[in-house]
Structure formats: C-alpha cells, structure tokens
Amino acid sequence: MGASTRRVRLVLLFGGRSTEHSISCVSAGGVLRALDRSRYDVIPVGIDTEGRWAVLPDDSPALAPVGTDLPVVDASTGLAVTLPPSPSAAPVVVHDPSAALRDLGPVDVVFPLLHGPFGEDGTIQGLLEMAGLPYVGSGVFASAAAMDKQHMKSMLAAAGLPVGPYAVLRPGQALSEPDRERLGLPVFVKPARGGSSIGISRVDAWADLDTALKTARASDPKTLVEAAVVGREIECGVLDSLDGSGPQASVPAEVTITSSAGFYDFEAKYLSDGAVFDVPARLPGELTERVRATAVAAFEALDCAGLARVDMFVTPSGEIVLNEVNTMPGFTPMSMYPRMWAASGIDYAALVDRLVQLALRDGAGLR
Q1: Pick from 44, 24, 35: which is nearest to 107 by CA?
Q2: Binding site annotation covers 136?
Q3: Topology given in CATH for the domain delimited by 166-227
Q4: Annotation-wise, does 226 bind a ligand?
Q5: Domain-wise residue ranges, the chain
Q6: Which part of the chain is the ATP-grasp domain (predicted)?
Q7: pLDDT band for position 259 (50/70/90)?
Q8: Is 52 assigned to a binding site?
Q9: Across 93-102, 235-244, 263-272, which has the greatest mean pLDDT?
Q10: Which CATH architecture has domain 8-135?
Q11: What is the pLDDT of residues 77-95, one digit of tens each?
C-alpha cells in the first residue's frame, strides 16, 4: 500500500457452482459488512450456480438469508463480468450489452470466499494465479489437496499425523468384506470432495450402505467410508502471521451434537439448534496445547497459507485423531472459525483485515 492514500481495490468472490453455494453467500455478506470502506473499495462479484459472474450491489439479496431461506446468486440482476487468465489483460472485464467490452479498473486483491468444488479446490486459485492477482488463502496445491479427503488424509498420515481408518470407493466400486470388518459399524459415508456435511450419512447397518453411497455420489462420484471415532469433536483455527513468525493456532472449540442425526450435519450447522458450541473448549491445558500444535502441524503438512480450520476428535484416552482441514471455512460472524479467533483476541473485522493484508504481502505467484 506504501504511502498512497488510494483505497485498496478488493474483489469479493462468492456463490459458485458447488453445493455450498448459499453458505458462501452468507459468509460473503459477513465479510462485506466487516471491511473498512475507508480503506477498501469493495467490488462484490457473485458467481451463480451455472458459473456466470456478475458485479452485484452491496444490498443484493444474494448476501443475506431471509429467515431460514438461504440466499442464491442471480447473475441477471448484476453486471456480467469475466476474469481473463492473463496478467497482461484487464483484471476484470465488463460485458455491457449496450457498449463495447471495457475493464472494471485496477484490482489489488481478491477474497475468494468460495466453499467446495469450483472454488475452494484450487480451481479459482489457479485462475487467479494465471491472472496475476493476489488472493486470500491457500494456493492451488494446498486447496486441491485439502478438498480431496483421500489425498488430505494420505498427506497427513505421511507427515506422521493421526487419521482414522477409512476406505475410498470410486464409481462402480463396492465396500469389500475385509474393509467392512476393518472399519466396523457405525461408519460415515462422505463425498470425497465436499463440505458443509452435504451428502454425508451415518450408517449403523450394512443394509443401509447402498443408500448412503447413492446420497454421497449425488455430490461426488468418489466417496469415502470412514470408521466412526468415539470422542469429542474439536475444531481449531490456524492463521498466518504478518511478521513472518509462522502460523498460529486459536483457542480450540468443541461441538456437541444434540440433533437426532447423531453427527454435525448440514441442518445442525446452519438451520437449527442441533449443536452446542463451547468456545473455548473445556479441555485440560496440556491437551489444549496438543490440539493447537496438531492443528498447526496439519496446516503445514498440506502447505496451507493464510487460514484454515482443522477439525479433529479427542478420544476418552486423550488421543487426537484428525478429521478434516478446511482452507476456506465458513465465515459468517457466527461461524466457528471467526468465533475461535474472537475468543483468542482477534475480532471479526480485525481477522478479515489481517487476511487481506496477508494476501497483499504475499502477492501473486509461487508462495
């Protein structure tokens, strides 16, 4: 930013083609309201479920839920734009039907607040790298690796970090008898590259496995079947430092499920009171520090950048078992990631600002 008084021009990307489209919209609404407009010139760009991009107004219905109705981007209500994959081209090109193509002006940084495939999985990150634009969050490889649960678990295990037993099923494959014996019951069936608990089922009888696989494969042809881990569900936020001292861990939080689903499903996360949250988690001091150290180790094992939320289980014996690493976690003011950092002394607005400053510091290109 130097000594210039010009506001930083920030494109806030949200929506997208994944099943987590609406959660992205709600997250973006929170970030938009938190950005200091005296410092940032914000351009909200929504991506609809068919992949069309449009500049939308700050008060767009796509940025806030109405009751229990989740928002959806309607690209026809905004100005159509594209992002050319070339650093020599205009950063964002406007498609004005009444005039020739024109650019939207300079862009300093992009906040790709997209969850799931076609956003959090390295695809948008690759486009932004091609365009030469700095952006918030992990790079192409870490985003892709964290999104694919099979490769995420392989990399965590290769780094000596604990993961639970699982099996990978590709299209047309069935769970073998040896894997059934190894995993036991209950199991959880998940899309390999999804989030927000969409497409996840708990299976307590093998007779229900085919139905669960069908549900998961509606989101992703590759699925995971995971052994249930008995323990407390713990989350921890990781955030890069501006001074170069390395990633830091927040205080952990605990999720206690009260819904009939028996796990932290989509409804419990976003639509009901199906879970109770303790921020910070009520863990002994030594265990808290092990959780925080494990979260940072997972962040580094996947070569993440900027931010991540690390989900894990703590067994009755105090063993830590890693579950997932989310490189662009939910970001509403009530989402767990901002709440953990607020309890750690960094409020929502300061957290958003720090992430943007990290992106500006790191710039575009290899990190």
Answers
A1: 44
A2: no
A3: Dna Ligase; domain 1 (3.30.1490)
A4: yes
A5: 8-135, 144-163+229-360, 166-227
A6: 153-357
A7: low
A8: no
A9: 235-244
A10: 3-Layer(aba) Sandwich (3.40)
A11: 999 998 888 887 667 777 6
